[in-house]
Amino acid sequence: SSLEAEGYKVFWATDAPTGQSLAWEKQPDLIVSDVVMPGIDGLAMIETIFKRPGIKKMPVIFVSAQIAEDFQPDQKSLPVRFALLKKPLFLPQFNLLVRKFLAGSPA
At a CB cut-off of 8 Å and minimum separation 6, what does 12 contact? Predict the structure, then answer.
């Protein structure tokens, strides 16, 4: 991936339950999640991750081909810094946002 090429360690999940487990176990510096997923959507997954006691509040980048105009998580359900990017991703913009969220230091 472009993030691995830039020196970041990446953990991959193909569904929400795996993503939740990885987030709880690894406590990454940043989460990138699709909004639309089978079963549970990305916002619900992220809200579930942050409800767990002791989990650190890492920033989130949501990506989606279909961005609903009413997609506005409130600070109670998502008390972290987040961004929403439309697919297909423009990699330079995505990589810049990742660096900005991580303050330039590879994880």
Answer: none
